[in-house]
Amino acid sequence: MPEDEKETTEQQRLEKEQLEDLGTVWRTRGPHAIHCLTVIGQIEGHVEAPQGQKTTKYEHVIPQLVAVQEDPAVEGLLVLINTVGGDVEAGLALAELIASISKPSATVVLGGGHSIGIPLAVSARRSFIVPTATMTVHPVRHSGMILGVPQTMRWFEQMQERITGFVAGHSGITAARYSELMLRTGELVMDVGTMLDGKKAVKEKLIDQLGGISDALEWLYREIERAE
Fold first, then answer.
1. Could you tell me which of 70, 76, 173, 71 has the C-alpha nearest to residue 121?
2. How large is the average pLDDT for residues 66-83?
3. Among 6, 148, 166, 208, which residue has the least CB neighbours within 10 Å?
4. Which terms in the Gene Ontology molecular function aspect does this entry carry (predicted)?
5. 117 CB contacts (<8 Å, ≥6 apart)?
């Protein structure tokens, strides 16, 4: 087999492995090389999720984001989001990493961008949401036993302040309005918070605009060409 055919075959094998193992497409073959990252299911942090659950493992995503920043062949980042939330610390860490990437970046909320998925949705330079997607805004919650002491409550408050500050800093919504939506009663069954569909999320200035993959790619191409 000629050397160039061997290289092509090996490249195809690596791309297939990345797609199957990590759910990513490295360097799309459009007009510009875009890395496509998917955030699906539950965001998994230091503790493994139960078997049978679809997860996005933060230890898999972090090296990809570093590579996007460092690889000169990658010109932009597209993040596709359909998450139920998950580990708060891990989700916020990923959002901070995406926000710190210097190359053009865009997010698209497809099915859901709930809980800690909201900071991820607003972390890129431009955010999109399809009309049928939903975003659930609610306070930080904790499963399992917790200590009933003032320090525990203060920890929850500080974490919520970090999330609210990040969301307000990377979208058009104010911290006060985000907190109001987060603590609203009477909308979610047995819970406090607010569920926003695509149009409402844009109206609240949480997401920049309605749109799907083609809109996000068009925006990325335009930003890349503007920087050339």
1. 173
2. 94
3. 148
4. peptidase activity
5. 39, 43, 81, 83, 84, 85, 91, 109, 135
The token pair at 136 is 């659930």
Task: In whole angstroms, give the CA distance from residue 198 to residue 189.
Answer: 20
Q: Where are the alpha helices (DSSP H) in 101-212?
A: 117-122, 150-169, 175-182, 198-203
Please give the structure tokens belonging to residue 18.
């990345």
| b/e per residue 61-100 (b: at least 16 CB within 10 A) | beebbeebeeeeebbbbbbbbbbbbbbbebbbbbbebbbe
Q: Which of 105, 115, 127, 171 is catalytic?
A: 115
pLDDT of residue 154: 73
Signed CA dihedral, 169, 170, 173, 179: sign only: negative
Which pTM value belongs to this model?
Answer: 0.84
pLDDT tens sequence across 21-44: 555 665 567 789 999 999 999 998
Options 123, 138, 170, 171, the catalytic residue: 138
Query: Mean of the per-residue pLDDT values for the chain?
Result: 85
Amino acid at site 91: G
Determine contact, residues 120/94, Cβ cutoff 8 Å.
yes
138 catalytic, yes or no?
Answer: yes
Asked whether the beta carbons of 108 and 176 are under 8 A apart, the reply is no
Q: Average pLDDT of 159-164?
A: 91
| Cα torsion 64, 69, 70, 71: sign | positive
